[in-house]
Design goal:
- This protein is an alpha/beta fold.
- Among the domains are: 226 residues, P-loop containing nucleotide triphosphate hydrolases (Rossmann fold), CATH 3.40.50; 75 residues; 263 residues, Orthogonal Bundle (Helix Hairpins).
- The strands form three sheets. The chain has a six-stranded antiparallel sheet with strand order 2-1-4-5-6-7. The protein has a six-stranded mixed sheet with strand order 8-12-13-3-14-15, with helices on both faces. It has a three-stranded antiparallel sheet with strand order 9-10-11, covered by helices on one side.
- A hairpin with a 2-residue loop joins strand 6 and strand 7.
- The radius of gyration is 65 Å and the shape is flat.
- 19% of the residues are buried.
- About 4% of the residues have low confidence.
- This is AAA family ATPase.
- It holds the Pfam family SbcC_Walker_B.
- Keywords: Coiled coil.
- InterPro entries: P-loop_NTPase, Rad50/SbcC_AAA.
- One of its GO terms (molecular function) is ATP hydrolysis activity.
């Protein structure tokens, strides 16, 4: 272990914060001095190191005897908190250096210097690659102690005191102590108590083995088995029952076979009767099938004649169809000829009309040029008329839209009775704008209305954008509230899980206590039973091996006998309770693991919710910024001016906003439908009522009446303008009417261009008419040719059909003559394909059924034949069934009796086997007990105390050997020796004085300085003697140097330097001796500052 940095705050005389950087202040010092006057606080540095590593101090432990109260005495007086932080490192098994920071802190209640001390808190941090990893930080021992044990690899505070922090007082007391005190001290500094425990356990194991042997003997005596004669008689009974059971089984099986034969015969006869009935029914079906066979035969006979009849009828129908086609063909020819004549007439008429049109066009050419000018002027007048009408319609629409907007504003003003002063002023400005617009309904009325509508459209678009952003704000706020709710719920659930974990941990502690209590109860019961077993071995008149008394008053006590009888049951009960407690403890541990996993998941969910909440907050800020910009574009006051209001007003508005969330949503839907001024009203509707609002509304209504009157005047003016326009266009309308009348009368347009177009269209129509009739004539010729071809084809088809009809009729007459049947008789006997298939299927089914019935009857008779003449009456069957039942019952009774006897025999076999096994166990136990008796005789005498003393003497000899190696340098005159008695080492030792002919001297003859040097050698020897699992890189020697003269002090310092050079250890001396300052250049000085305060400084 190596120290790197120590931080101390408010520890005893060290008020405030103090830092000792071992790496920076004393980087290469092999030997350094912690020096200062008595009471300045030198040992406080050692207390701080012990507090950081182990949470206790060695000095206060000796003074109070209660290590758990040490911390009450280390905090500086008048302070409310203190802490210690030690950065140290240790060499791992693989050679790596592991670095840690251990801390200990404590405070008083309510941070008050007079408050009650609170439980100290300890923490441990591991430094890896420059990064710090917190291993534990808690005030509960069960949580932080495992981490410290792993980091220190099991190093305890006693190990630390014996190998690193060497306090001279322990060894001075050891030198001057009595034998018993010396044994106690030696046991504490060398850990020989383990040997007494081993010896005690060996003695206890011998007693347990003896008790176990007696218990086995008692249990073996309780096992009872049958005698030889009784067992032979039992075997005979079993053999007799086996023979009777076999006989009963054979009889029952034979009777059962007879019963089965009878049942089989009855069943076959019943089936044969049923088959015969089915055969009788089949015969009837077979007769009906013969009739159907005759129908099929008649069908086969007349089928050819029937087909000839059908062919003759089909040929006759074909001849009739051809005749009808000839008649229709003749009618078509008559129509084609009439159409051809009409087409010729129409063609001639069209050609005449075309010539007349061309002649008339030449006569009208002059009039066409005059009409072109009149047409152009008429078009101009009609365009002006349409423009004026459209302008008048637009004015009317704008006036109606303005009236509608006024009515909507009036309705909105009536609904919002809590409008503020700026609202009223804006309404007045809007009213003045409307008055101005209405009064100016003259020539520029349309342009002003249009400009106003354009501005309103822009504001409306801005309002729509603001409404969209406001919807986003509401959605983000809602999502933020949901996230906050989820976060609160998760936090509450985390708190509940932590409470559950705390409760489970408390239950674990309680179960642990209960487990210890029940374990102790089991041990106690076993001890009581052990005493009972020892008591049973006593004999009246013989001395007790424990107390030596020959009287044993409780040997025959009923109470003791009841205790012995209940011992086993109580042991089982207590053991079961112990196992149940262990099971419950494991169950709670699993529950704790599940809760911890759940807690980890909840914390992860909480972190995700917090991250999402930050994202929502950023999105809400962006939406608010866009919303503010849209309001400014719409002409509203920016949001920053609202934020400049008083904080209390803003808070009240925010609460009102939450309370009227639904109302705002309705207002938002209306914002999308209203113009910019209506949206202005919605945004500023959050202030106090005005008493004069009703009066303002009344004035607005009056102004609205005036505005409507002005609007009516504007409408009248518009009507006058319209009338003037009508007067202007009336001559044009009369001209148009005359023009239309002229067109109706002459059939020709008056305008030149129209007339020319009419002439051209007339000529084109005439030409088209000529072309149409010419094309019709060509089509008529094609139709005529097609008709002629069809007429030739029809004549050929008629001839062929007449020949087929003659041939079929002749064949049919011959077939009817052969059958001697008429056509009607043939047609009545022939069957359709469906009927014929059904009849054939029915006949096949009847034949198949008959075959199956015959085969089944044959099989039944063949099965009945081997059975012979079996009595199949119901009475015989009943008697046979009763006989079978009786035989089976007899067989079952014999089986039950045989089972009972076999169970008795098997039970006796098990008991014999158990007794044999118990005898084997007894023999093995006796052999094992002899081993434990020998071991207990060697190391278990007096509950292991003798073995402990022997181990202590061996440790003392090893300790003395190591101490003498250091004593040769510290004081070569002396050498420690261990006294022996009867050839064995004892706990007594003296010093050998080499300057007095190697005379043995008592330790009491040594001076103070000589005693210190001997004690120092023992301390250094112990630091080597104590075996721990990591190298010791630093030694802290506390006090004792004040008893040495200058020369001895020089020798001691040089010896320590030599020790450092040999072992590469860093050695610190804690002393108040001033002369050490000259011998050791590197010093940590603790200097008093007065009033019980000190400070730390490093001098090189």
């Amino acid at each position: 272990m190596r120290f790197h940095k120590l931080r101390i705050k408010n520890l005893n005389a060290l008020y405030g914060e103090h830092v000792i950087d071992f790496d920076a202040d004393i980087p290469g010092a092999a030997l350094f001095l912690i020096v200062g006057p008595t009471g300045a606080g030198k040992s406080t540095i050692l207390d701080a190191i012990c507090l950081a590593l182990f949470g206790q101090t060695p000095r206060l432990d000796r003074r109070t005897g209660h290590a758990e109260h040490d911390v009450d005495h280390v905090m500086s007086i008048g302070e409310a908190e203190c802490f210690v932080e030690l950065e140290f490192s240790m060499i791992a098994h693989d050679g790596r250096r592991e670095r840690y920071v251990a801390a200990w802190s404590m405070r008083r209640a309510r941070d008050n210097p007079d408050g009650k001390p609170q439980r100290p808190e300890r923490s441990l941090v591991k430094i890896e690659a420059g990064a710090q990893k917190l291993l534990v930080s808690d005030h509960r021992v069960k949580l932080y102690q495992p981490e410290f044990d792993r980091a220190l690899r099991g190093l305890s505070v006693e190990d630390f005191k014996r190998s690193i922090l060497l306090a001279q007082g322990d060894f001075a007391a050891f030198l001057k102590a009595s034998d018993s005190e010396k044994a106690s001290i030696l046991e504490r500094v060398t850990s020989t108590e383990i040997y007494q425990k081993i010896g005690a356990r060996a003695a206890q194991r011998r007693r347990d083995a003896e008790n176990e042997l007696r218990d086995l003997e008692r249990r073996a005596e309780g096992v009872s088995v049958l005698g030889q004669e009784a067992r032979e008689e039992l075997n005979k009974e079993i053999g007799s029952l086996v023979a009777g059971l076999q006989e009963a089984k054979e009889s029952a099986e034979k009777a059962q076979e007879e019963l089965e034969v009878l049942k089989r015969a009855q069943k076959l006869k019943s089936d044969l009767v049923q088959v015969e009935k089915d055969q009788n029914l089949w015969k009837l079906e077979h007769e009906r099938a013969n009739i159907e066979r005759k129908r099929l035969k008649d069908d086969s006979t007349v089928r050819d004649a029937a087909e000839l009849v059908v062919s003759r009828n089909r040929a006759a129908a074909s001849m009739q169809g051809l005749g009808e086609r000839v008649e229709r063909h003749q009618e078509l020819w008559d129509r084609i000829f009439g159409t051809w004549q009409e087409l010729r007439r129409q063609e001639k008429q069209a050609r005449g009309g075309l010539g007349a049109a061309e002649a008339k066009i030449g006569a009208e050419q002059a009039q066409l040029e005059d009409a072109l000018a009149l047409e152009a002027r008429a078009k101009g007048l009609l365009g002006v008329l349409r423009e004026r009408r459209e302008g008048l319609d637009l004015v009317r629409a704008k006036v109606e839209e303005t009236s509608r907007l006024l009515e909507e504003r009036q309705s909105l003003v009536a609904e919002n009775e809590e409008a503020i002063q700026p609202l009223t002023k804006k309404i007045e400005r809007s009213r003045e704008k409307l008055k101005t617009l209405i009064e100016g309904a003259s020539e520029d009325f349309e342009s002003k209305i249009q400009d106003e509508l354009v501005a309103l459209d822009k504001k409306l678009n801005s309002i729509r954008a603001a409404s969209s952003h406001f919807s986003q704000i509401e959605r983000f706020k809602s999502e933020r509230e949901d996230r906050r709710g989820q976060l609160d719920s998760t936090s509450a659930e985390i708190s509940n899980v932590e409470k559950e974990i705390s409760a489970v941990q408390e239950n674990l502690e309680l179960l642990g206590s209960l487990l210890e209590a029940r374990d102790a109860a089991v041990t106690h019961v076993r001890e009581i039973l052990s005493l009972s077993k020892w008591r049973r071995e006593l004999a009246m008149g013989e001395p007790c091996p424990l107390c030596g008394s020959p009287l044993h008053p409780y040997l025959e006590s009923e109470e003791v006998r009841e205790i012995d009888e209940k011992g086993d049951a109580e042991i089982l009960t207590k053991t079961r309770e112990l196992e149940e407690t262990k099971f419950e403890l494991d169950k709670k541990k699993r529950s704790l693991d599940l809760l911890r996993n759940r807690l980890t998941g909840l914390k992860t969910s909480k972190e995700h919710s917090e991250s999402r909440l930050l994202g929502i907050t950023q999105e809400l800020e962006d939406a608010t910024r866009h919303f503010s910009k849209a309001l400014i574009d719409a002409g509203f006051q920016p949001l920053e001016e609202y934020r400049l209001r008083d904080q209390s007003v803003l808070k009240a508005e925010e609460e009102a906003l939450v309370a009227r969330n639904e109302e705002k949503r309705e207002l938002l839907s209306r914002v999308r439908k209203l113009n910019a001024q209506v949206a202005d009203l919605e945004k500023e509707l959050e202030n106090l009522k005005r008493p004069e609002l009703k009066e303002e509304v009344r004035l607005l209504e009056r102004d609205l009446v005036n505005a409507r009157r002005s609007l009516e005047d504007a409408r009248k003016k518009a009507e006058e303008v319209e009338a003037r326009w009508l007067e202007y266009v009336q001559p044009l309308q009369e001209l148009s009417q005359k023009w239309e009348i002229s067109e109706i009368e002459d059939g020709i347009p008056l305008a030149g261009s129209a007339r020319q177009a009419w002439h051209e269209s007339a000529i084109s129509a005439a030409k088209r008419e000529v072309r149409k009739w010419t094309e019709e004539l060509s089509k008529s010729a094609q139709v005529e040719a097609q008709w002629v071809g069809e007429a030739v084809s029809l004549a050929s088809q008629i001839e062929n059909a007449r020949q087929d009809l003659d041939r079929v009729s002749s064949t049919l007459r011959e077939e009817l003559s052969r059958l001697e049947l008429s056509e009607d008789e043939v047609l009545s006997r022939v069957l359709s394909q469906e009927v014929r298939s059904q009849l054939e299927a029915q006949i096949r089914e009847v034949e198949s059924t008959g075959t199956q019935l015959e085969e089944r009857a044959r099989l039944i008779r063949s099965e009945l034949e081997p059975l012979g003449e079996v009595q199949t009456s119901d009475e015989g069957r009943t008697l046979l069934e009763e006989r079978v039942s009786a035989l089976n019952q007899r067989y079952d009774e014999l089986g039950v009796e045989l089972g009972r006897l076999k169970e008795r025999a098997e039970s006796d076999d098990r008991m014999r086997e158990k007794l044999s096994q118990m005898h084997d166990v007894l023999e093995e136990t006796r052999k094992r007990d002899q081993l434990w008796v020998r071991i207990a005789n060697l190391i278990g005498t007096n509950e292991g105390a003798k073995f402990r003393e022997f181990a202590q003497t061996l440790n003392l000899r090893g300790l003395v050997e190591r101490a003498n190696r250091h004593l040769r340098y510290l004081h070569p005159r002396f050498e420690l020796v261990v006294a022996e008695r009867d050839g064995l080492p004892t706990l007594q030792f003296d010093v050998l004085d080499k300057y007095q002919a190697s005379r043995i001297r008592p330790l009491t003859t040594l001076s103070g300085g000589e005693s210190f040097l001997v004690s120092l050698s023992l301390a250094l020897g112990l630091s080597e003697f104590r075996s721990i699992d990591f190298p010791v890189e630093i030694l802290l020697l506390d006090e004792g140097f004040g008893t040495l003269d200058q020369e001895s002090l020089r020798v001691a310092v040089s010896t320590l330097k030599r020790l450092e050079a040999q072992s590469a250890r860093q050695i610190a001396l804690i002393s108040h001796v001033e002369s050490l300052k000259e011998m050791i250049p590197v010093q940590i000085r603790v200097e008093p500052q007065g009033f019980g305060r000190s400070k730390i400084s490093v001098v090189k």
